[in-house]
Amino acid sequence: MGPSKSTRFPVGHEVTLAELESDPYPVYARLRAREPVSWLPALNMWYVTGYEDVRTALLDTAHLTTVSDHSTIFDTFGAHMLTTENPIHDRYRRAAQYAFTPAFIRENLDEAISNLTAGLVRQFRNRGCAELRSAFASRLPIQVILFVCGLPMDAEPGMRRWYDSFEAALANFAGDSAIRAAAKLSVGEFHALLEEAIRTCAAEAGEDTGLRSLISRMVNAPPAERLSDDEIKRNLSIIFFGGISTVEALLLNCLWALFEHPGVFARVTADRSLLPQVIDETMRWLSPVQSATRHVLEPFEWRGLRFEKDEIVNCMLGAANRDPSVFSDPDRFDVDRANVRRHLGFATGLHSCLGSQLARTEARIALEALLQLPELQLDRAASEPPTGYEFRQSRRLVVQWREGETKD
Ligand code: HEM
Questions:
Q1: Residue 312 φ/ψ, nearest 5 degrees
Q2: DSSP class of 292
Q3: 140-149 and 245-260 helices cross at what angle (nearest 10)?
Q4: What is the pTM of this model?
Q5: How many structural domains are present in the chain?
Q6: What residues does 399 pair with on adjacent strands?
Q7: Interhelix angle for 275-285 vs 245-260, to 10°?
Q8: Is residue 300 part of a domain?
Q9: Sign of the dihedral defined by the CA atoms of residues 174, 289, 147, 194, in that order
Q10: Is residue 54 very low, low, confident or very high in pLDDT (cuts 50, 70, 90)?
Q11: How sure is the predictor about 171, in pLDDT bands with cuts at 50, 70 and 90?
Q12: CA of 388 to the centre of ligand 1 (A)
């Protein structure tokens, strides 16, 4: 980064990590108004904050790519759908996408998700209070992915441990070798579990097993579409990684938004059909994933600015989702917005979230169950407000309810 960028982007120059971490929204508003495409020395990257600019950047595969040898996600998991572009990306994505379509979810996963949800709620229902992140939100998404993949439920504690070490590695921008080594070990252990499942599924080849798990479907795909075992493992790694703390954050953020807006809370308690709007408005207002990262392929110019090869362009989904030119009164949580689904919380373009419908379904079923806890309320003093500018969520959400009258 040359000093010219600092003089050219005075607003970006002043941004600190601390203010992004605690509340990025005023920063986004300043940048969007004065430097919609800006350079942030604090992060050593470009920041794009306007809705149309974020869309343009995500769709501009001629200049911007997810492929980078330097990215922590590539270093941890290797080549998979989020670190490749077409034609490889297309091949990878097609191998897995059948399990994430609305019809498949409705027919094959809804009931299982309801059962898993009920099982978790049963564990704390009689206590009258719970820290929902550890007791529920961090657990349900792991159990759901185990079910989707056809892996045993007793793998949950291992998955948690592996996930935490993957997460540390993906945030390991300083290249700490101990963190990297721990993640490599976890990837190895996770892949060993997958190898066993792949072997079992290969033995079922030709049998009509009805609903096939994602792994079985991938392993027994027609030869022209069949990924190698290694490719299956790498893509399952990103599916697993992509679907855990994101869903955790969505669940916690929906609850946070509802507690902050008692009027909406009362409406949705009386009328559960509002839940899809609550979920999408939360995706907009308190986006769990705030950014989508791209790398500059070759030097190019855009909006009168020059982008150099390998520079990072961070497309700020959380900022786009508060752009007043698209969402009127954007800081207001408004479940009645006509364009509630126009948010970019799942990004857009070829890499847009594979699991968006699964995430929405998990959130709907989970909230339906939690809202049955009578007189549910937030213990504000014991909880933490959402923080973070990559992933944004509460790290601790304690709730209370009246004991003894909940239905199954
Ligand atoms: C609320 C929950 C979720 C949020 C906010 C979210 C967000 C995102 C975003 C923003 C992207 C685009 C990344 C980019 O373009 O750089 C993405 C991609 C992806 N997500 Fe999600 N996600 C969620 C849930 C899930 C679930 C449940 C799964 C799977 C079980 C999943 C799997 C993936 C995969 C595999 C990709 C890469 C797709 C590709 O490159 O073609 N996500 N997600």
A1: -100, 130
A2: E
A3: 140
A4: 0.95
A5: 1
A6: 130, 378
A7: 100
A8: yes
A9: negative
A10: very high
A11: confident
A12: 18
Full residue range of the structural domain in which residue 271 is found: 3-400
Q: What is the pLDDT of residues 100-135, one digit of tens each?
A: 999 999 999 999 999 999 999 999 999 999 999 999
Residue 68 lies in a domain: yes
In whole angstroms, give the CA distance from residue 40 to residue 171: 18
**What is the CATH classification number for the domain harbouring 140?**
1.10.630.10
- Nearest-angstrom CA–CA distance, 81 and 74: 11
Tell me what the mean pLDDT of segment 165-185 comes to: 87
Going by C-alpha positions, the residue among 60, 54, 71, 45 that lies closest to residue 301 is: 60
Token couple for 395: 């790290």
- Domain membership of residue 196 (yes or no) is yes
Atom 38, ligand 1: residue with shortest CA distance: 351
Task: Specify if 405 maps to a domain.
Answer: no
Q: Which residues line ligand 1 (CB under 6 A)?
A: 66, 81-82, 93, 145, 238-239, 242-243, 246-247, 250, 288-289, 292-293, 317, 345-347, 351-355, 358-359
DSSP state letters, 23-74: --HHHHHHHHHH-SEEEETTTTEEEE-SHHHHHHHHH-TTTEES--TT-HHH
Helix, strand, coil share of the chain (percent; to 5):
55, 10, 35
Per DSSP, 391 falls in state B
